[in-house]
Design goal:
This protein has 449 residues and is mostly helical. It contains 20 helices and no strands.
Length: 449
């Protein structure tokens, strides 16, 4: 009688089982880089209500799960104890990521504006979902799309997921093509010995009063509750500003994961100080367990997001989405390849693959592509990707502010906000490149490694 409460979760996990078995017993799938999460998602897309309708998935429930997993994943990553790095690699990596967001936004928004001139039924705002679905993944695309839906964009959440699914297509199929063209003959197959660490796991991750995994989840829940309270407070403070305040507050709910990451950093800092002073006797936060929680959150989110694409809801936008994402995938590769060659002096190919996989899919797809040419992660590209993503959060704050402008166009009907958005993107791009190549470049002549 309680099956309906968890059926969508069980279905997605069964899709993972199908993906694992398929890659295990079908040699064709072992030859290519297709992460299990993406393969599981396509199982959901085919077996779910979109095509065969053999599995009764509730795409709205999956969308809600995706929304919350986005925050849980970023909170988990931000609670980890991070090694302090005092070089310019992370800055350059972060600027590569943010500048790609910008060019994706400019390209997508320009294409949707032109499409709107020919077909007024297509909202210009859908182009702004390109950097969200490609650059930031399905959780963000769904989150912002659903907020824009409340402001007037029909089926905004479904459109966001469709853009993200197209991004995964570029990250996997496009990544395979890139590997075959640029990395032919360079793939190294090395044996990696797995060391038994069972005794270490028991010592580090089990506590006398509570299971280690339970403790991590409790702390994540505390931070997440703080996020919800903070966003409610901001919405309450913005309410007297009228339409602008309501719109701004609505958009902020789409960036709940950013607030989660910030509060998690603060929590970790305070917790470390309390532990140093002996007030917190036990160091309960554990990097390994937090990484595993984040890994599950992102894997499940990827599979659920592809499964939750509702084709009938995006029928009106199919061709605009197709052409925008097609152009976005091609442009993203050539742009990433260009800026990596300009800023990276060593290991250009591994960094190009890692950033392309990340900026069309997620960090997991970027890492999957990277491991094909750097199986032991020795080139430093993985560190550039991870630490650069942290830097990108801060340089991306102006982009978050700019997302309020097209939202204002939806809520007020004043299309001038679309032009203000494009102007804002171009102005921010100018100052970002001015800072990057004129100032930061002087301190990073060696480039990324």
């Amino acid at each position: 009688m309680y099956w309906t409460k968890i059926d969508d979760v069980i279905y997605v996990l069964l899709f993972f089982a199908c993906a694992i078995l398929l890659k295990r017993f079908v040699p064709f799938f072992r030859r290519f880089i297709i992460p299990n999460a993406i393969l599981a998602g396509f199982f959901g897309l085919i077996l779910g209500p979109n095509l065969l309708n053999w599995v009764p998935l509730d795409v709205d429930v999956l969308g809600q799960i995706i929304y919350h997993l986005m925050a849980i994943g970023f909170i988990s990553l931000s609670l980890r104890q991070m090694e302090k790095k005092k070089d310019w690699n992370s800055l350059n990596a972060g600027l590569i990521i943010v500048s790609t967001y910008l060019v994706q936004g400019i390209l997508g928004f320009a294409m949707s504006l032109l499409w709107n001139l020919a077909d007024k039924g297509v909202s210009p705002i859908i182009g702004m979902l390109l950097p969200l679905g490609f650059g930031q993944g399905p959780g963000q695309a769904y989150s912002i799309g659903s907020q824009w839906q409340t402001l007037g964009l029909p089926n905004g959440s479904a459109v966001g997921l469709a853009v993200a699914a197209a991004g995964f297509g570029w990250a996997t199929l496009g990544g395979i093509v890139i590997l075959n063209i640029f990395a032919k003959g360079r793939r190294r197959k090395e044996h990696v010995e797995v060391v038994d660490k069972k005794s270490v796991l028991v010592k580090d991750f089990e506590f006398s009063d509570m299971d280690g995994l339970t403790i991590q989840m409790v702390i994540i829940a505390v931070v997440y509750v703080g996020v919800m309270l903070l966003l409610r407070l901001i919405n309450w403070l913005m309410a007297p500003l009228g339409t602008f305040g309501t719109t701004f507050g609505t958009v902020l709910w789409g960036f709940h994961f950013v607030f989660g990451a910030i509060l998690a950093f603060v929590f970790r800092f305070v917790y470390n100080k309390l532990h140093e002073k002996g007030i917190a006797k036990e160091n309960y936060l554990n990097n390994f367990l937090l990484q595993r929680i984040a890994g599950f959150a992102f894997d499940f989110m990827v599979a659920a997001s592809i499964s939750a694409v509702a084709l009938e809801r995006i029928y009106r936008y199919f061709w605009p989405i197709f052409f925008i994402t097609f152009a976005g995938g091609i442009f993203t590769f050539f742009y990433v390849h260009f800026v990596v060659r300009k800023t990276v002096k060593k290991n250009v190919l591994p960094n190009t693959l890692a950033f392309f996989g990340n900026l069309t899919g997620t960090i997991s797809t970027g890492m999957a592509l990277l491991r094909e040419v750097d199986p032991l992660l020795e080139t430093g590209a993985s560190e550039n990707l991870i630490f650069g993503s942290g830097v990108a959060i801060f340089f991306g704050l102006p982009l978050i502010a700019l997302l309020n402008l097209p939202a204002m166009a939806l809520s007020t009907g004043n299309t001038s906000y679309y032009l203000y958005t494009m102007g804002g993107l171009l102005v921010y791009a100018f100052f970002l490149y001015l800072f990057w190549f004129r100032r930061a470049g002087k301190h990073a002549k060696e480039g990324l490694e």
